[in-house]
Amino acid sequence: MTLIAFHDGDDNSSLDEWHNCALKIEKNMSFVSLTDKQAEKAEVALVWNPPIGRLAELKKLKLICSLGQGVDHLWKDISLPASIPIMRLIDPFMSHALSQWVIAVLFDFLRDGSFYRSKREKREFCKLSQRDTFGMDVAVYGVGAIGSVVANTLKNLEFRVTGWSQTQKPYLLFEQETGKSAFQKLIKSNLIHICLLPLTKSTKSLFTKDIFMQMPKGAYFINAGRGEQVDEMALLDAVRTGHLSGAALDVFCEEPLPKTHPFWDEKKISIWPHVAAQTNPETVIRQIIDSIQAVKLGRRPRNIVDPIRQY
């Protein structure tokens, strides 16, 4: 019997759902809450934002699996066992879902959704001139498992897409740039900016006041990467002064977003509660079970995180 220690954020309301999904494929598994005393016998930890120090207490642990595609929540714990491999989820379902979210918020901006909703409330039947979006320049920052799907989808919708990442990926079919100078060039030359980067030491606080002011006047910023990549007050100021047309945000420095946060009062900033791509147990449980079986056989699981790159 393989014992799996489970933790899903601040509560374990989905523990039974994950357990039932696993049992459809592998009967020889048992789930227990990470905070339960029994978890100290677990060989696998399936977690999101676990309590600091708790994973180090699991002396029989052989594999840590993040409940999402991101793993930055694990680096908060300086006691994280360095010898235990960490895997992240690579799920086409999540990539597809996030590409839909990007398209939804992007077209809501480009087709003046907020304007027409405000006119509906006043029962005013009027219109704005329609933007010409054919060949519009779009920069996608981060073109990994999720970002590459988003970039390809936008390319197929006739946008002129350029992806930016740490390394060139020869198998992708859209334009790519790498390096700091290329980042600056994209910031200055694109109207639409989409951040899908993992949170690492090099991407933290990447979008600053200086960066926002270098974007073309009227630019639009979309973030489904991580909140800590953005200077939130600088973004707010850029929107309020009219330099940016607005922003759509799914991630924030503090989540849930505090009720007192000034973002709530800015109508040009669209706020989403970190739902652009949610983990679906049904679509990812197979890769988790395969990774557990690989570890038990002394093999290297797929999608192992590089602790130096932090993704």
Helix-strand blueprint:
Layout: E1 2-8, H1 15-23, E2 29-33, E3 44-48, E4 63-66, E5 86-87, H2 92-110, H3 113-121, E6 137-141, H4 147-156, E7 160-165, E8 175-178, H5 180-189, E9 192-195, H6 209-214, E10 219-223, H7 232-240, E11 244-249, E12 269-271, H8 281-296
Helix pairs in contact: 1-8, 2-4
Give an overview in words.
The chain has 311 residues and is an alpha/beta fold. The protein folds into 2 domains: 2-91 and 279-296, NAD(P)-binding Rossmann-like Domain (Rossmann fold); 92-271, NAD(P)-binding Rossmann-like Domain (Rossmann fold). The protein contains 8 helices and 12 strands. It has helices spanning 15-23, 92-110, 113-121, 147-156, 180-189, 209-214, 232-240, 281-296, and strands at 2-8, 29-33, 44-48, 63-66, 86-87, 137-141, 160-165, 175-178, 192-195, 219-223, 244-249, 269-271. The strands form 2 sheets. The protein has a 7-stranded parallel sheet, with helices on both faces. Strands 2-1-3-4-5 form a 5-stranded parallel sheet, with helices on one face. Strand 9 (192-195), helix 6 and strand 10 (219-223) form a beta-alpha-beta unit. 34% of the residues are buried. The mean pLDDT is 96.
